[in-house]
Design brief:
The protein has about 775 residues and is of the alpha/beta class. The chain has four domains: about 100 residues, no CATH class; about 110 residues, Chitobiase/beta-hexosaminidase domain 2-like (Chitobiase, domain 2), CATH 3.30.379.10; about 375 residues, TIM Barrel, CATH 3.20.20.80; about 120 residues, Jelly Rolls (Sandwich), CATH 2.60.120.1190. It has 18 helices and 37 strands. Helix 11 links the parallel strand 20 and strand 21. It is globular, with a radius of gyration of 30 Å. Bound molecules: zinc ion.
C-alpha cells in the first residue's frame, strides 16, 4: 500500500482481489451438451488432409478458408483421409453433431447446419502454440435447445452498409445463432428497394435531419443533414445468400400499420388524411399510420410479394407494434371498414388488418410473426408472436396454442445500458447488464410441457436510435450476444461464473483478433456504499480474479486525509463525514490490464453522508433506493438509468426529517431532483424547510430560493435554501410535487413522477 502526493492530488493504489475459479475448461461457447477431456493433445502441422465423401461443398469452402486465415493451415481433400473426417448420421436429434479428437479428428453430424456448428466448435478448441496448432484430446456431443436463436437489427433509425450487415451475420453465426431479424422499415427510413413503388426508396429512404442526443433532451436540437440509404434487391439477394452459407435465416420485417411515416412520406395517399409529411428525424411513436382502407392493404400485399421473392424464410415479420388509433378514430374510411366487417372498435380493426396479412402470407405458404400487440383484438389463426413488452404476451399466445419467440425488454433489449458508469454512451434507457442477459430463460417456469412446446426460442433486439455506427453496434451487442447464445443453445446452462471465465479466457481474445469493439463492462468493479459510524464505507467489488489499481484524487488532499479517509481493508475505504460547509470531491479511478481505459467513479464527502432520516415518506416500490440513498455522497446522474434516484408518484408532499444530533446553526439546505419529461419525471413545484428544537414544535423557515434550477455538472436540478437559523436540532424538508402533467407533454393529466437525490444540510455547532 502506498500513498503518494502527485500534483496536489492524493493517489492511493489499492488492490482488489475477487473470487478464484479453477475448472477444466471447455473453451466452446455456447457450451456443448457433453464435453469430456482426455489425456494428451495433438498438434496440427502446416497441412491437414480432409475426407471428401461426407463433406458438403459449402462447408468445404468455408473450412478451407478459415483454416488458412485463422491458423495458416492448408487443407488437402483426399477421399480416404483419416486426419479430419466427416460422417453424416441418420436418426439423431435435429442439428446434432459430435467431435472426437484422438490421434485423428472425427466429426459426425445430422444436418449441414450441424456440420457448420461442429466446425465452429472445433475452431474454438484450436489454439496456436510454438510448435503448431494444439488440440486437446476430447469428445464433444451437442445439439441446440431452441430452434429460434435470433439477433435483430434496426437499419431504419441508423443505416448499416452491406458489408456491415454481413459482418454482423458472420459474427453471430460463430455463436450458433440461426435467425437474423432484419428490421427494414420504420418511421425514419424505408430501406428495401420495392420495384413497384420506387418512391419508397427515392423519397422514403432519406430524412432531412436527425435529432441530436437523447430524445428527452429539452430543447431538442437537430443535425440538419440528409441521412439515409437503402439496399437494392441485388444487394439483398447477396446478403440472403451470404447468411444461408452461414446457416442463418433472415426474417425480414415490414412494419405495419404503425411505424410507417417513411412509407407515408413517399405515398401520402396511404394515410388516413392524405396529407404530405416528411420522413421524421425524431424518434418515438407517430399518430399517422397506414389507413386500413383496401388500397393500403393492397399496397402492403404488393410489397410483401417482392419481399417473399427475396426472402425464402418460413416466417415474415409484419411488426404490428405501437400503432396509435387516433387517426383511425377520425377517419371515415376506417370507420367504414369497422362497420362493414362488424368490428367492435379500432383494436379489432388492427386485428382485422393483421388477419388480412396473415391470410395473404398463409396462402403464399408462409407464416406471419408480429410483436405482441397483434394479440389485441384477437390473434390471427396462423400467427406467431414475438413477445417484447415482457413475457406476458408470449405466455398468453402460447396458452392459446400459438408459436412464440421471447424477446422481453427486461433481458433482450441490447439498446439498454450495460453498466452504471456515467461514461457509458447515451442509450435509450434501461439497464441490462451481462448477468441479466445470462439469467434469461425464454420458457416461463410454470409452463406445462405442452405450453413449452410453443416456445420457439428467443432473440435480442438492437434498436438503433442511439447506435449511430457499426463500432457502437458491436459495443452494444458483444459480449451480451454470447450470453444469450448460452441461454438459447445449452440444454443445461452452466453457471454464470463458469461462462464468464470461458468468455474472458477464450472469447474476448477471439473478439479482439476480429477487432470487435466489445464492451468491457464485465470488468468494471462496482462501487458499493455502506453505513458506518460517523460516516460511510466504500467498497469496490471486482469481477473475478483481477487486480485493480485504484487512484484516488480529491479536491483538497491535505484536508481529505485529515477528514478521515482510512483504508480499512484492501478493497474498502472508510470516510468520516465532514463538518460544516466543507465538501470534498473524490475521483476513484480504477484500472488493470483487462481494461482499455480506467473506469471512474465520482463521490462527494459532505456533512450529511451516512445520516439516515428520522422519518421519511415511503418511496414508490419501483424506485425505493435505500435508507441512505439521499445521503450517500453519490449524486443522481443524467441520463437516468433507473436506480440512483429515489422515486415518488404522488401529489401529497414528500417529507424528510433529520436529526442533527446536537443543537446547531443550520446555514443551508439543498436537495436535487430530476427532470425527464419523456419518462413522466417532472421537477417538484418547490420545497420548504421547517426547523425544531424537539421534533414536536416546528417553525417554517422563510426563503425565496425554493425553486429548482439546473445545477452545474452534478446531473439533475438542485435547489437550495439559505437560512442561518440558530439553535435547532431537527430539520424537516417538505417537497411539493407537481400535481399533474401539463397538456401537450407525454403523460398529460397524469400524476408525474418525482425523483429526488442527495440532501445536504450544512450546519455547525
Ligand atoms: Zn383511415
Amino acid at each position: 500500500m502506498r500513498f503518494n502526493y502527485l500534483k496536489g492530488c492524493l493517489v492511493l493504489v489499492l488492490i482488489l482481489i475477487g473470487t478464484t475459479i479453477s475448472l477444466s475448461q471447455c473453451p466452446i461457447l455456447p457450451t456443448p451438451t457433453i464435453y469430456q477431456e482426455n489425456k494428451g493433445a495433438i498438434l496440427l502441422g502446416e497441412e491437414i488432409s480432409v475426407n471428401s465423401n461426407d463433406l458438403p461443398d459449402n462447408i468445404r469452402t468455408m473450412l478451407s478458408r478459415r483454416l488458412t486465415e485463422e491458423f495458416g493451415i492448408r487443407m488437402v481433400v483426399t477421399p480416404k483421409s483419416q486426419k479430419l473426417s466427416f460422417h453424416k448420421l441418420e436418426n439423431v436429434p435435429q442439428d446434432f453433431y459430435s467431435i472426437n479428437v484422438d490421434e485423428n479428428i472425427r466429426i459426425s453430424y445430422s444436418s449441414e447446419a450441424s456440420c457448420f456448428y461442429a466446425i465452429n466448435s472445433l475452431f474454438q478448441m484450436m489454439s496456436r502454440e510454438e510448435q503448431g496448432v494444439n488440440l486437446i484430446k476430447c469428445f464433444v456431443s451437442d445439439h441446440p435447445k431452441y430452434q429460434w436463436r435470433g439477433l435483430h437489427l434496426d437499419v431504419s433509425r441508423h443505416f448499416f452498409t452491406v458489408d456491415e450487415v454481413k459482418r454482423y451475420i458472420d459474427l453471430m453465426s460463430y455463436y450458433k445463432f440461426n435467425t437474423f431479424h432484419w428490421h427494414l422499415t420504420d418511421d425514419q427510413g424505408w430501406r428495401i428497394e420495392i420495384k413497384k413503388y420506387p418512391k419508397l426508396t427515392s423519397v422514403g429512404a432519406y430524412r432531412d435531419s436527425t435529432v441530436i442526443g437523447h430524445y428527452n433532451r429539452s430543447p431538442r436540437e437537430y443535425e440538419v443533414k440528409k441521412y439515409g440509404g437503402f439496399y437494392t434487391q441485388e444487394e439483398i439477394k447477396d446478403i440472403v445468400l451470404y447468411a444461408k452459407k452461414r446457416y442463418v435465416t433472415i426474417v425480414p420485417e415490414i412494419e405495419m400499420p404503425g411505424h410507417s411515416r417513411a412509407a407515408l412520406a413517399a405515398y401520402p395517399e396511404l394515410s388516413c388524411t392524405g396529407e404530405t409529411q416528411n420522413v421524421p428525424g425524431l424518434w418515438g411513436i407517430f399518430d399517422d399510420i397506414y389507413c386500413s382502407k383496401e388500397e393500403s392493404i393492397r399496397f402492403l400485399q404488393d410489397v410483401l410479394d417482392e419481399v417473399l421473392f427475396l426472402f425464402p424464410s418460413e416466417y415474415i415479420h409484419i411488426g404490428g407494434d405501437e400503432a396509435p388509433k387516433t387517426k383511425w378514430k377520425e377517419c371515415e374510411k376506417c370507420q367504414k371498414v369497422i362497420a362493414q366487417n362488424g368490428l367492435k372498435d379500432e383494436h379489432e380493426l388492427q386485428s382485422y388488418f393483421i388477419h388480412r396479412m396473415d391470410e395473404y402470407l398463409t396462402a403464399k405458404g408462409r407464416k406471419l410473426i408480429g410483436w405482441d400487440e397483434i394479440l389485441e383484438g384477437g390473434l390471427s389463426p396462423n400467427a406467431a408472436v414475438m413477445s417484447w413488452r415482457g413475457f406476458e404476451g408470449g405466455i398468453e399466445a402460447a396458452k392459446q396454442g400459438h408459436y412464440v419467440v421471447m424477446s422481453p425488454g427486461s433481458h433482450c433489449y441490447f439498446d439498454h445500458y450495460q453498466s452504471t458508469l456515467s461514461t457509458e454512451p447515451v442509450a435509450i434507457g434501461g439497464y441490462t447488464p451481462l448477468n441479466k442477459v445470462y439469467a434469461f430463460d425464454p420458457t416461463p417456469e410454470d409452463f406445462s410441457p405442452a405450453e413449452a412446446s410453443y416456445v420457439l426460442g428467443g432473440q435480442a433486439n438492437l434498436w438503433t436510435e442511439y447506435i449511430p455506427d457499426f463500432s457502437h453496434l458491436e459495443y452494444m451487442t458483444y459480449p451480451r450476444a454470447i450470453a444469450l447464445s448460452q441461454t438459447l443453445w445449452c440444454t443445461k446452462k452452466p453457471s454464470y461464473e463458469f461462462f464468464k471465465e470461458v468468455l474472458i479466457n477464450h472469447h474476448l481474445p477471439f473478439l479482439k483478433t476480429k477487432e470487435v469493439n466489445y464492451s468491457e463492462a464485465l470488468f468494471y468493479p462496482v462501487m458499493q456504499i455502506f453505513e458506518a459510524e460517523n460516516g460511510l464505507k466504500i467498497h469496490f467489488k471486482g469481477e473475478g480474479e483481477y487486480r485493480y489499481d485504484l487512484y484516488v484524487t480529491t479536491t483538497d488532499p491535505a484536508k481529505a486525509l485529515k477528514g478521515g479517509m482510512v483504508v480499512e481493508k484492501k478493497d474498502t475505504l472508510y470516510f468520516e463525514r465532514l463538518k460544516g460547509s466543507d465538501i470534498h470531491e473524490y475521483t476513484f479511478k480504477l484500472s488493470n490490464d483487462l481494461l482499455t481505459q480506467p473506469i471512474i467513479y465520482h463521490w462527494t464527502n459532505h456533512s450529511m453522508i451516512g445520516i439516515k432520516p428520522l422519518q421519511k415518506t415511503t418511496p414508490s416500490p419501483q424506485y425505493p433506493g435505500n435508507e441512505i440513498s439521499l445521503s450517500d455522497g453519490v449524486f443522481g446522474a443524467e441520463p437516468w438509468k433507473g436506480y440512483e434516484w429515489v422515486g415518488y408518484r404522488q401529489s401529497e408532499p414528500l417529507i424528510y426529517i433529520y436529526d442533527l444530533g446536537k443543537s446547531s446553526v443550520v446555514e443551508k439546505v439543498q436537495i436535487s431532483a430530476l427532470e425527464d419529461e419523456g419518462s413522466w419525471i417532472h421537477l417538484p413545484q418547490n420545497f420548504l424547510v421547517e426547523v425544531s428544537k424537539n421534533n414536536k414544535k416546528w417553525k417554517p423557515v422563510k426563503s425565496t430560493s425554493s425553486v429548482f434550477s439546473k445545477s452545474s455538472g452534478k446531473g439533475g436540478f438542485t435547489s437550495g435554501i439559505l437560512m442561518n437559523v440558530k439553535k435547532v436540532r431537527y430539520v424537516k424538508i417538505v417537497v411539493q410535487p407537481k400535481e399533474r402533467i401539463e397538456g401537450g407533454k407525454p403523460g398529460a393529466n397524469n400524476i408525474p413522477w418525482t425523483f429526488l437525490d442527495e440532501i445536504r444540510i450544512i450546519h455547525r455547532l
